[in-house]
Amino acid sequence: MREKEIKHAMEFLVHIRIGWPHDMDPAHKESVSTAERAHAAELAARGHLVRMWRVPGRTENWGLWRAADATELHTLVSSLPVWPWMDVTVHPLAVHPVDPLPPVPTPSTGP
Length: 111
Hints:
The protein has helices at residues 26-45, 70-78; strands spanning 10-18, 49-54, 60-67, 86-93. The chain is elongated, with a radius of gyration of 15 Å. The protein has one domain (4-93): Alpha-Beta Plaits (2-Layer Sandwich). β2 and β3 form a beta hairpin. The protein is 26% helix and 28% strand. The N and C termini lie close together (11 Å). It is an alpha+beta fold. The chain has two helices and four strands, in the order βαββαβ.
């Protein structure tokens, strides 16, 4: 983990579809997209946005996110500049007994 605040984080698989308006000003769209990349980089540096995959040929992605709980995740995702044009589906993830990687520490399992 990169920060103490997410040491005991839950993991979420987040699917985001972007629905840009057809009549959106291209300069405004570019400005929002630039701000989005910068903010996403900040969230990644803080350890919240762990991985991101693009869906080829579509304006959508899947991401692995870490947050203390679903409320914090909502705050993080809704802080993204593209939020007004996003359709978001969240899948909370639980530890699986045959996962080849060690689980993320939780308050019940300790560091």
